[in-house]
């Protein structure tokens, strides 16, 4: 109960701190902003450890080693090495090593793969000290990630977006909605046809396309205003309901 | 100074104060308003409502505190509806800061509906790299989640033993504030024909109507308005319904300010031409 009260007061103070920026920049706003950034970063590190590094790397490695599946265990070193290589960019190996050490101490977990990772971090750090230009190795990790991302997205975009949307556009022109969709798609596509100057018939069609684009922007902006007001309502609801029990 | 010039030069902090009053006063005074349910939200409701008891609903928490005021009421309303229909709920997330919100909502709704962790619902936790995961679940869920968020093996929960791929999931619900909903539709929907409904922020809603129109999603709950419509359908008004009068008052004020600003601008331009 006490923890809940303290938590509510801290949250209310930080909310007022952030909102106070509307009047002018002030130390309370700065404090709230920095606290948010720091807390989010700390939270993300713990989550990455608890839901990513530990179950997908450490636990799997230990389980496979215990079951004498040495190949399945050590193959996990491959993504781990790619991760360390990625850290060589911007000299992040030393902070990563520090974070790894803290997590090992806090959670009392000294898996062999974590020790190997720590050694790799040290080696990478020493290498960047000797030759700062060695950070090019991070490009291999980036290339690996981009390759996987592109491969996954390409098929999904065609299968789950392009084909269903084209198919949905090709509807019989028997009602107003279908005609509007058809005209909107065609004229918008013509607006983005830049191989010829937009004059004459092409100009007229592309101007209709602009109208459709503007209507889409207007709808999108209207929804955005609604969303921002909703966030403000959320904060006021918290202040008036949870902090000051004015709303019952 | 003329009235229009006075209005055009008003301090922006006065406008912030007016907006604050437009939001706060309706929250305090609670005027009664009627919420009209739109077709996309009704369709989402009916999709959940038509699932047979015991079906598994996979709720993906793809939002975080920055959009919680809009999306969290949807989560609470959907949980109430799912538990009322005796559906099994499986929660997961792809944003590190989103899962605690799911935990708070589950801890609020499950006890009031008499639901038990492990028997009626589980929280699988957070995993990064959502695109690979979305494809991977089509093969085997356990490749990504072999334990829940507390590290308990998922096979120790009775209803989870029969959940392996999308075929075992009756409905996927993506509560998103970004591109994750699109990814669910394209990966799980496009490749595995997984029935999906989406709850999203107002910013995202216009981009998702195309999926609704093409039948790639079964329903769409957009913004706080959508959440209030869902609350109306389950006959359990919550924070979204309470926020609707404030939303209307704030929109009214913004429209009024837009009109005043534009008329003032036109009049001052005409005066400058003279």
Structure description:
- The complex is a heterodimer of chains A (248) and B (274).
- Chain A has 248 residues and is an all-alpha fold.
- Chain A has 2 domains: 2-152, no CATH class; 171-243, no CATH class.
- Helix content of chain A is 81%, strand content 0%.
- In chain A, helix 4 (77-87) runs parallel beside helix 6 (112-130), helix 4 (77-87) packs across helix 7 and helix 5 (93-107) runs antiparallel to helix 6.
- Chain A starts with a helix and ends in a 5-residue tail after the last helix.
- The mean pLDDT of chain A is 89.
- By secondary structure, chain B is of the alpha/beta class.
- Chain B folds into 2 domains: 3-30 and 246-273; 39-237, Rossmann fold (3-Layer(aba) Sandwich), CATH 3.40.50.
- Chain B contains 10 helices and 6 strands.
- Chain B has helices at residues 3-8, 12-29, 39-49, 68-84, 99-113, 130-137, 180-192, 205-213, 223-233, 239-273, and strands at 56-62, 88-93, 121-126, 171-176, 196-200, 219-222.
- A 6-stranded parallel β-sheet of chain B has the order 3-2-1-4-5-6, sandwiched between helices.
- In chain B, strand 4, helix 7 (180-192) and strand 5 form a beta-alpha-beta unit.
- In chain B, helix 4 runs parallel beside helix 5 (99-113).
- The longest helix of chain B has 35 residues, at 239-273.
- The interface between A and B is large, with 48 and 59 residues.
């Amino acid at each position: 109960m006490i923890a809940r009260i303290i938590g509510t007061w801290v949250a209310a103070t930080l909310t007022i701190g952030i909102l106070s920026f509307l009047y002018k920049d002030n130390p309370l706003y700065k404090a709230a902003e920095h606290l948010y950034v720091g807390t989010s970063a700390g939270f993300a590190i713990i989550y990455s450890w608890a839901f990513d590094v530990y179950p997908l790397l450490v636990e799997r490695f230990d389980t496979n080693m215990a079951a004498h599946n040495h190949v399945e265990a050590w193959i996990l070193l491959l993504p781990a090495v790619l991760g360390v290589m990625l850290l060589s960019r911007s000299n992040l190996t030393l902070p990563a090593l520090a974070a790894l050490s803290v997590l090992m101490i806090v959670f009392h977990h000294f898996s062999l793969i974590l020790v190997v990772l720590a050694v790799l971090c040290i080696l990478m750090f020493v290498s960047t000290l000797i030759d700062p230009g060695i950070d090019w190795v991070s490009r291999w990790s980036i290339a690996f990630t981009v390759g996987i991302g592109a491969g996954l997205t390409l098929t999904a975009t065609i299968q789950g977006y392009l084909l269903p949307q084209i198919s949905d556009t090709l509807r019989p022109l028997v009602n107003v909605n279908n005609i509007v969709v058809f005209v909107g798609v065609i004229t918008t596509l013509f607006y983005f046809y830049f191989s010829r100057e937009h004059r004459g018939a092409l100009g007229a069609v592309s101007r209709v396309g602009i109208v459709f684009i503007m209507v889409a922007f207007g709808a999108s902006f209207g929804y955005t205003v609604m969303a921002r007001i909703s966030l403000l309502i959320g904060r006021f609801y918290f202040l008036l309901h949870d902090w000051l029990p004015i709303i019952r | 100074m003329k009235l229009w010039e006075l209005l055009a030069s008003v301090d922006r902090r006065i406008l912030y104060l007016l907006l604050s009053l437009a939001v706060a006063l309706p929250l305090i005074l609670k005027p009664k308003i009627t919420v009209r349910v739109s077709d996309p939200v009704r369709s989402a409701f009916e999709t959940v409502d038509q699932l047979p008891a015991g079906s598994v609903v996979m709720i993906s928490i793809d939002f975080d505190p920055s959009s919680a005021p809009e999306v969290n009421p949807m989560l609470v309303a959907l949980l109430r509806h799912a538990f009322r229909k005796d559906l099994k709920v499986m929660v997961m997330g792809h944003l590190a800061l989103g899962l605690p919100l799911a935990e708070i909502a589950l801890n609020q709704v499950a006890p009031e509906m008499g639901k038990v962790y492990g028997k009626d619902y589980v929280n699988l936790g957070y995993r990064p790299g959502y695109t690979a995961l979305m494809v991977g679940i089509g093969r085997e869920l356990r490749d990504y989640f072999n334990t829940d968020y507390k590290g308990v093996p998922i096979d120790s929960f009775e209803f989870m033993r029969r959940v392996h791929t999308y075929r075992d999931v009756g409905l996927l619900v993506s509560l998103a504030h970004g591109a994750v909903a699109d990814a669910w539709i394209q990966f799980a929907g496009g490749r595995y024909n997984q029935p999906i409904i989406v709850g999203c922020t107002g910013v995202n809603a216009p981009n998702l109507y195309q999926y609704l129109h093409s039948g790639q999603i079964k329903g769409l709950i957009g913004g706080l308005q959508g959440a209030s419509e869902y609350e109306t359908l389950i006959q359990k008004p919550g924070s979204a319904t309470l926020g609707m009068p404030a939303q209307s008052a704030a929109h009214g004020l913004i429209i009024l300010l837009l009109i005043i600003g534009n008329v003032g601008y036109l009049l001052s331009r005409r005066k400058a031409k003279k």
